[in-house]
Amino acid sequence: MRILLIEDDPSLGSSLQSWLQMDGYAVDWLQRGDQAAAALATHAYQCVLLDRGLPGLAGDAVLQALRGAGGAQARLPVIVITARDTLADRVQGLDLGADDYLVKPFDLEELSARVRAALRRGAAQHAPALRHGAVALDPAAKRVTLDGEPVTLTAREFAVLQALMRHPTHILSRAQLEEALYGWGEEVESNAIEVHVYNLRRKLGSRFIVTVRNQGYGLAAV
């Protein structure tokens, strides 16, 4: 899951990015509202965390542009994170199209719960369940089963599997899989993809994921 964080406070932004990365999300962090359009045009996000008071372009304007864009962007879950705490502020933010409204300062565990809820709602509305052979993946519940039995995956193993199952007839390069796991500037572990693929094979079957030399990984034919 990839999250776009738009927050101009360097200390808070860094803390939120690190916290969400520990939850297993890839997090791209912007500090200006006028940078949002380019990021949204070039990356597929599952959630946006948006401050209202931003330089360049106010958060309200970013939210209005999103909701007026049509297509997937118009349906993208947006959680407003702001110090504006009056009832009128909350009502205005929700009326502009926010899915949730979180007032600073807030507990990081509460933020995680609200992100999970937003992702569940978005996945339930727009992401169908995926199946390949005996393996089924439910994006909304973040649940994987093998022959009907639940399989426990880490957040990043789930992300790799979901990327592969979304494109069951394609070979995905290591760079494409890393895109699903890491945010901008986040250090990429040299053998991370290999480790996740190894663990997925151990849990789902050694022949479920195939390696194509010099190209990447894909799903075995069923």
UniProtKB/TrEMBL annotation:
SUPFAM superfamilies (alphabetical): CheY-like
GO molecular function: phosphorelay response regulator activity; transcription cis-regulatory region binding
One GO-annotated biological process of the protein: regulation of DNA-templated transcription
Annotated OmpR/PhoB-type domain residues: 127-221
DNA-binding region, residues: 127-221
Matches recorded under Gene3D superfamilies: 3.40.50.2300, 6.10.250.690, Winged helix-like DNA-binding domain superfamily/Winged helix DNA-binding domain
Residues bearing PTM 4-aspartylphosphate: 51
Pfam family, one: Trans_reg_C
Cited SMART domains: REC, Trans_reg_C
Residue span, Response regulatory domain: 2-119
GO cellular component: cytosol; protein-DNA complex
The protein, known as: DNA-binding response regulator
Gene source species: Alicycliphilus denitrificans
